[in-house]
Design goal:
Number of helices: 12
Radius of gyration: 32 Å
Structural class: alpha+beta
Shape: elongated
Number of strands: 12
Strand content: 15-25%
Amino acid sequence: MGIWTHFRESMLNILSAKLRSILAILGILVGTGAVVALITSSQLATTHALAQFKTLGTHLVSINISYQGSGVDTTSSTGLTLDQVYQLANSIPGIEKMAPYASIFQTILYQGQTFQGSVAGVTRDFFNVAKVRLSSGRMVSIFDKTKLYAVIGHKMAKQLRGMGVMDPIGKQITVGNWFVTIVGVAKPWQPNLFVFLSLNEGMLVPIEAASLLAPSTTISNLLIKLTPEANLQKTQAVIQQTLQNMFPTAVINVQNPQQILDLIKKQQATFTWLLAAIGGISLLVGGIGVMNIMLVSVVERRREIGIRLAIGAYQSDILIMFLIESVMLTLFGGVLGIIIGLTFSYVLAYLSHWEFYFFLLPPVLGFVVSVFVGIVSGFYPALRASRLDPIQSLQAN
């Protein structure tokens, strides 16, 4: 019996028992869909996290100065002065640019409406190091000093446009008890785990003006760009030790992008294996379901099997026929599961505002596993069918 004949007859058998076939397909669909969706979503999350550092580069050091204790906020703790920042930048070899920034905790208002955003005091170098680009207007500069000028994030600009302000440049917005003039609007900025600011929803003012808006403000965060020839690990250690000597009781948290990337990759590998195991359990359950359904099919078709054997069919023909039917069932479930899994991942990426990427591994893995499950779960029923006695099978009710 030719292979195409087997395929045709297997398809007819599947269609003749629609409910049974749907139940078998459903189990594999859920398992394969879970594997594809979970692994793809995990890879998307990792890709999104890694993309955060592509624009920044890896030759950077991020520093946060904090104090241990009962909820002491870094901005209210003793931090660096601007003179100390410049002294630090000049005293340590390998530093190309040092961009201090200070968070300011004040209410932001425009025409009586409160904005949910942050305010940060920055230097001009911050725009360069953090890769903040403008869609209109200009950056705050060293000439602004204590002038209350600000660059706002694109989401804050969108909020203002919703209030009828089509061009925010030149408009004044209230921060605490002060009026701040908007001089620039930033392009969408990629948030990351390296810069502790929400730039898209917030506003940037000259760091010298930060003490006017909030007198208790101190510099507790530094973003440092190293020269290309600098040794990242050694320079980072020198910076950390220097700051620890300046602030003996402080906790100096120093990190670079490579440390975060290594941690993300390690977590992703662990997470992927965990999710694959969960999906594998689902497929195992689905495979057991297919095996049970194929065993029922063998019992129901004993007379048919007996007739085939009586008129000259080989045991291998019966074996192949049931194996093909089992594989076709799991393949249908696998293909549908792949489609549903990818659709779920796409929806997740859309809702999370991630860029969707197609990864070849999850659907290929889903396809291969579906075939494997079909062969494994169908082998015993197929073997049992091929070993039936023709005479006893013909006498079956």
